[in-house]
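Margin note from the TA: students keep mixing up input and output lines. Inputs are the sequences; the output is the structure of the whole complex. Example:
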Amino acid sequence: MEQTEKTEHIIEAAIKRFAHFGVHKTTLTEIADDLGITKQALAYYFPDKQALLEAVEQKIITEFFQLVNEHATAAPNAELSLLSLLEVKKSFFDKYAMLMQQVGPEMLANFSRVAESRKKVQAAVAVHIAQVLEQGIAKGELKPMDTTEVSMVLYETMSAYEHCFVGRQAVPDPHTFSEMCIRQKAVMQLIINGLKAN
Amino acid sequence: MEQTEKTEHIIEAAIKRFAHFGVHKTTLTEIADDLGITKQALAYYFPDKQALLEAVEQKIITEFFQLVNEHATAAPNAELSLLSLLEVKKSFFDKYAMLMQQVGPEMLANFSRVAESRKKVQAAVAVHIAQVLEQGIAKGELKPMDTTEVSMVLYETMSAYEHCFVGRQAVPDPHTFSEMCIRQKAVMQLIINGLKAN
DNA sequence: TTTTGACTTTTAATTTAAAAAAGTCAATAA
DNA sequence: TTATTGACTTTTTTAAATTAAAAGTCAAAA
């Protein structure tokens, strides 16, 4: 088994633990045990926990943007494109529950590089939203607007709901969570209504 | 000095401490000291901390709705009425900083009746918003809509931002806070745009 | 190149002890 | 009877110490 393949296996094992129990609550030894190796062997591929988490996040981020782009190109208009973004987010929350929690003081202290990369993801999503808006304007679906400003507001509002309902708490209970998604969609819809050209 | 007057003095002294240092961090002895009495004397008027906090909250709630109603009747239309609601909220955050924090597990555990009354306030604000929307519809300013649903969304969105920026943390730093208010206003404006009749 | 045993350091969880605050009540004064 | 207090008990917080667990290191070996 070559190195690339091995690191992939490790990342997948890490995701299973991280997504289910949270980064904080899973030990490197547990991940190593799952793979039938020792933590020292694991350390050979990933020098420390943060390095492993970075790789995990990178994989998920790639998956996320791939899905976002697929949905965006498939969407017939800006409105449905933005709503599908919520769907994608929802599916990621379902799939990677404990990895979706917001950046808290703990992550900032222990995993500063990961916290950094989260910021980049946020910025990238905001840029994506802005592009969707611009295409909507170009097609006459939406009124002209300051797309940067509006995309910021849209992104922040979505985040605020996530932060509010899910927060940095443990396992977000399924009912509260799906309620949150419904609410999120409702605000998004109201805002989009105001953006549409008459 | 008669009883009513005395309890008023106590409430005011309590507000000063609560609003500045938070309920949790101020002791009944401190409030009593400020008034030149002992905590036992204070206990004569308010049997426990929760009773005092209830009185404090009641006073502030009354002040809040009075101001809300003044602003609402003074506002020329629904749009400005809703935006002025944000101004009123902002002024209360400025004035009663530490008393404005969201209901957390701690308040729920120690001050259950206060937590209850907070829920009623939330419901009342949502009702107020719904009324403003209905008047806007009646005057032809706004499109017909499910006012209950929309008022819920508006209220929740405002709350989500507060929760997100201010949270249940200590002193919300002034810059972050005023930034929050600007953002809040931006979302509100976007949503209102979508509610307006063409 | 990869893995491990044996190790040190750091961090997290638990316990314990001390301090502070809340709450009680009989007595006392107005 | 109303209001207040001293002296008290109970509960909650805080701080310190202990312990346990996880992270990280490295020379030796496969």
